[in-house]
Specification:
It contains 2 helices and 6 strands, in the order βββααβββ. The chain is α+β, with helices and mostly antiparallel strands. The protein has helices spanning about 60-70, 75-90, and strands spanning about 20-30, 35-45, 50-60, 95-105, 110, 115-120. It has a 6-stranded antiparallel β-sheet. The longest helix is centred in the last third of the chain and has 18 residues, at about 75-90.
């Protein structure tokens, strides 16, 4: 949902802002790697995402390794990410697959019990 209609005037001046987003059956796969996200968020009073999504990542360790190889993460950051996600995977019951809530609240994000940073700002 947007804060105003997407019509011919939407591209002139201030662009419309997303005020609510619902993801259904969203999946990206590459080889044996798979990432899916479902859920909904809306803009809170400060414009930050508020709500919850469910994240499922199969072969998540290989995703982290690919991010390190592509220089999107340093090796040190990749190792830290693997440690945090490893905890979540153990809580999920399968060390190669993560299924966890991605919660957006009070301007922050948490993946399961792990804080991961600021929530995205939907309305600036």
């Amino acid at each position: 949902a947007f804060d105003r209609p997407l019509d011919r005037n939407a591209l002139e001046g201030v662009k419309p802002h997303v005020i609510a987003l619902t993801l259904k059956e969203t999946e990206a796969s590459w080889g044996g790697l798979s990432l899916s996200v479902t859920g909904a968020v809306r803009a809170d009073d400060q414009g930050y995402a508020e709500g919850q999504m469910t994240v499922n990542a199969r072969k998540w360790q290989d995703m982290v390794d690919a991010a390190v190889t592509a220089n999107m993460l340093t090796q040190t950051a990749g190792d830290a990410v693997k440690t945090g996600l490893g905890l979540i995977a153990r809580l999920s019951g399968d060390k190669h697959e993560i299924t966890a809530p991605l919660k957006f609240s009070g301007g922050f994000m948490r993946l399961g019990p792990v804080p991961i940073g600021n929530a995205p700002k939907l309305v600036k």
